[in-house]
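WARN no homologs supplied; continuing
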Amino acid sequence: MSKRRNTGYASGSSRHWVKTKCLDWKRENGERWRVFEKKARAQRARDQLKKKRAELARVLERLADQDLSPGMARELRKHVAALEREIAELEGEA
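OK structure emitted
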């Protein structure tokens, strides 16, 4: 960490403090970010899968409604098929 020369010390976060890394650190830890990125990507995939499953449940519930017009039911069935494909793809990645 470093700070601007003309500012005084203050504890806690400050816009005057700057995080710096020397070239040696960057060379030695250049691939380190990949470990964290892999975990974050997996978590995003799990979150997206959860959202898609919830959306599918809502669409199926709406499709079970008896008051749907034939056109609306057809569009909802298309949406169900698309969601099922997306869920299958996400499950394949996880």
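Helices lie at 23-28, 33-63, 70-93.
OK
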